[in-house]
Amino acid sequence: MSWLNIDNKVYIVTGGSSGIGKAIVEALLEQNCIVVNADISEVEQNNKNYRFFKTDISFDEDIRNLVEFTIQNFKKIDGVVNNAGINIPRLLVDYKKEESEFELSSDIYDKIMNINLKGVYMLSQKCAKVFIKQGYGVVLNMSSESGLEGSEGQGCYAASKAALNSFTRSWAKELGKKNIRVVGVAPGILEETGLRTLAYEEALAYTRNKTVDDLRKGYSNTSTIPLSRSGKLSEVADLVMYLLSQRASYITGVTINIAGGKTRG
Ligand SMILES: NC(=O)c1ccc[n+]([C@@H]2O[C@H](COP(=O)([O-])OP(=O)(O)OC[C@H]3O[C@@H](n4cnc5c(N)ncnc54)[C@H](O)[C@@H]3O)[C@@H](O)[C@H]2O)c1
């Protein structure tokens, strides 16, 4: 028996085709778990315990089908990792110009909130119904340090993560008596993932009055991080696996910051 003892447990991971989610999928497979990767874009994993289920987490019907698929195939769900998320930098007010594309619009607001927040509630609700019948389960929400600290040019994203932290606290209070834990993980600055597209960098640079080059130099400037480096995706995956396991059996209702000691974003 391994220390984590999560062999043969069944986990749904959203956004498991890239970045943090992919690292989580791979770490779980290494521990002999069964993993259903719910993502809009498909990625292969050469492992018999891996399934891809095409899912847009902002669509209720996709989520219903995902949960049905998992139960039909594996008869149970031990935990759900709400990892999928997007970030589109936008200012509240662009005082440099009128009619700016970099000002928050209701379309962008809806897009961010539908994926980062509404999708999480819809999937957690369906999984929690299964967990209640089973008598156990874990909901893990992927937050961000920005949800605790705020972030210039990323107010909508940071607000979606702060709201997620609040879901984590409230759902833990609602579901604790049913032996269901609800936990969050809030990474700070990490090695590069799919979130760092050119469109993202251009928008963030604009909102901070910097060039994309200056922004890129900032990635290696770790002076605000006490551990003086960015985090590895595998370090986030390690924390996720611990929280999913019974080793974390008395932890619920909290969002754990994993940011190398950085506290101001
Ligand atoms: N990378 C970081 O530094 C960092 C820091 C803090 C928090 N986070 C959070 O970690 C999570 C993962 O981020 P990442 O950096 O690995 O991003 P990423 O872009 O590399 O991966 C996100 C995955 O989610 C999928 N996805 C996007 N929209 C989806 C939808 N509607 N339905 C299903 N899947 C969808 C994408 O296809 C992609 O595979 C996000 O919630 C993000 O906010 C990331």
Automatic annotation (TrEMBL):
InterPro entries: NAD(P)-bd_dom_sf, Sc_DH/Rdtase_CS, SDR_fam. One of its GO terms (molecular function) is oxidoreductase activity, acting on the CH-OH group of donors, NAD or NADP as acceptor. It comes from the Bacteria. Keywords: Oxidoreductase. Pfam families: adh_short. PANTHER family: 3-OXOACYL-[ACYL-CARRIER-PROTEIN] REDUCTASE, SHORT-CHAIN DEHYDROGENASES/REDUCTASES FAMILY MEMBER. Belongs to the short-chain dehydrogenases/reductases (SDR) family. This is Sorbitol-6-phosphate 2-dehydrogenase. It comes from Spiroplasma helicoides.
